[in-house]
Amino acid sequence: MAGEPQADCLFCKIVAGEVPATLVRETETTVAFRDINPQAPTHVLVIPKAHYPDVASLAAAAPQLAADVAKEAGRVAAEDGAEAYRLVFNTGSAAGQTVFHVHGHVLAGRGLQWPPG
Ligand code: 5GP
Ligand code: ZN
Questions:
Q1: Could you give all domains of the chain from N- to C-terminal order, each with its CATH number?
Q2: Which of 96, 98, 103 has the alpha carbon at shortest distance from 51?
Q3: Long-range Cβ pairs for the range 77-84 (8 Å, 24+)
Q4: Which atom of ligand 1 is nearest to the CA of 39?
Q5: Which DSSP state fits 80?
Q6: Could you list the mean pLDDT of each consecutive 10-residue stretch along the chain, which spans 117 residues?
Q7: Label partner for 31 (CA 20 to 30 A): which of 16, 18, 75, 110?
Q8: Greatest CA span in the chain, whole angstroms?
Q9: Which ligand gives the minimal distance to the CA of 8?
Q10: For the whole model, what pTM was predicted?
């Protein structure tokens, strides 16, 4: 069922505390933790605790939860002292998505090129 934990999902395991992660924020509905392979001084992943595979399916099924993720991304950046940041949702393997539990990458703390590669 949409939103239910998936046994084979790495980020569901992080939500459950079964895989360790460096948490930076937690709310009733979201978790934010540092990326294991950071691409910028601030590289934090913001996820809903509920499992949705990508940002579009999250927004379609649970718009308030999508808003919670976006709001938390802003708080993560602010708490890391970032005035500017990039929020990225890789969607689909050809776009670089490797974990199919929706996550926003909060990237900040260095110059960020536009357009991205
Ligand atoms: P994607 O490629 O799906 O957009 O992003 C997945 C991200 O998850 C990657 O940036 C990768 O470094 C990160 N990642 C993969 N495994 C782990 C893990 O076990 N812990 C943490 N904190 N991040 C992970
Ligand atoms: Zn999951």
A1: 10-108 (3.30.428.10)
A2: 103
A3: 77/42, 77/106, 77/108, 79/24, 79/25, 80/41, 80/42, 80/44, 80/108, 80/109, 82/42, 82/108, 82/109, 84/108, 84/112
A4: 10
A5: T
A6: 93 98 98 98 98 98 98 98 97 98 98 93
A7: 110
A8: 41
A9: 2
A10: 0.98
